[in-house]
Every structure is written in C-alpha cells, then in structure tokens.
C-alpha cells in the first residue's frame, strides 16, 4: 500500500507541475540575444 501511495503522490506532483507549466506563453519564445560587450573576447581566432 505504501509503494502505491508514494507512486501516486510523486506522479501526481509531476503531472501537476507539467499541467501548470505547459500553458505558459514564454515557453515558446527564446530570449533575445544579448549584445556582445567590449569585455568579451571574440571567438574568430
């Protein structure tokens, strides 16, 4: 009984998290690229 209950609770929490995360609009968008700063070296070499 304990094993089934722990599986039900853990999977229920995972499903709840997925249900809360999937409708978010920001999951489909990448953040805008950051502008290179003067302190960052170039990788052209």
List keywords for this structure.
1 helix, single chain, 44% helix, 0% strand, elongated, 45 residues, mainly alpha
Structure description:
The protein has 45 residues and is mostly helical. The chain contains 1 helix and no strands. It has one helix spanning 2-21. It is elongated and about 60 Å long. 0% of the residues are buried.
Principal-axis shape: elongated
Structural class: mainly alpha
Number of helices: 1
Distance between the termini: 63 Å
- Assembly annotation: single chain
Concise description?
The chain is mainly alpha-helical and 45 residues long. It is built from one helix and no strands.
List the helices and strands and how they pair.
Elements: H1 2-21
């Amino acid at each position: 009984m304990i094993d089934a209950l722990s599986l039900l609770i853990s999977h229920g929490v995972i499903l709840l998290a997925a249900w809360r995360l999937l409708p978010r609009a920001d999951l489909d968008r990448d953040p805008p690229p950051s502008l290179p700063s003067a302190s960052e070296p170039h990788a052209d070499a």
